[in-house]
Amino acid sequence: MRKIKIDWNFKDQIEMNKYNVFNDGSKCNGRVGCGPVVYYGDQIQREFSWRLNDHSTVFLPESQGIKNAIMESLDLQGEINIYTISRSVLESLNSPLSQSEIIHEIKKWIQNKANYRLYWVKSHIGIVGNEKVASLSKVATEKNEVDFSAGIPKSWIK
Q1: What CATH architecture is 9-143?
Q2: Is the dihedral of CA 66, 90, 129, 110 positive or negative?
Q3: Tell me: the pLDDT tens digits for 92-137?
Q4: CA dist 103 → 13, 16, 70, 143 (Å)
């Protein structure tokens, strides 16, 4: 598999004539959630709030959020920028050694559609998209029902 293009330079301005997808994951009070938002320019087009199973590590909601955001944006035309604060997910996407099933799924989706670009952004510095997804991912942890169950992380199995 070829490397995925990731822009590591901090980006404080979103591109107005493109789809911009922000993602965040949260773990609060033993519950896990993610909440991606799809913007066109600075206008919200779609927003989501999904609770994950409680055994998830913080890596999972970040990666699951990116995967779900890609799946929810497959019908969109034009360039799609995906912004995340998770360096570990982005590094895993560029690693040939990653054994994470969800990372392999994300790689396949992105490599099959050339219109996705991934960006790393700093957290909690007032970027509207980041603040919105931080809020949605926390709301997801308050849901009673689990939307996605990813099983137990491999690292927990001995």
Answers
A1: 2-Layer Sandwich (3.30)
A2: negative
A3: 998 888 888 999 999 988 888 778 889 998 877 777 888 899 899 9
A4: 27, 28, 12, 25
Q: Is the dihedral of CA 107, 109, 112, 118 positive or negative?
A: negative
pTM of the predicted structure, to 2 decimals: 0.86
The whole-angstrom separation of Cα 82 and Cα 20 is 6
Antiparallel, parallel or unpaired: β 80-84 and 43-47: unpaired
CA 91 to each of CA 45, 79, 138, 145: distance values in angstroms, whole numbers, following the listed order: 28, 22, 24, 31
HEC secondary structure over 63-111 = HHHHHHHHHHCCCCCCCEEEEECCHHHHHHHHCCCCCCHHHHHHHHHHH
> Could you give the angle at the alpha carbon of 136 between the alpha carbons of 48 and 98, nearest 5°?
75
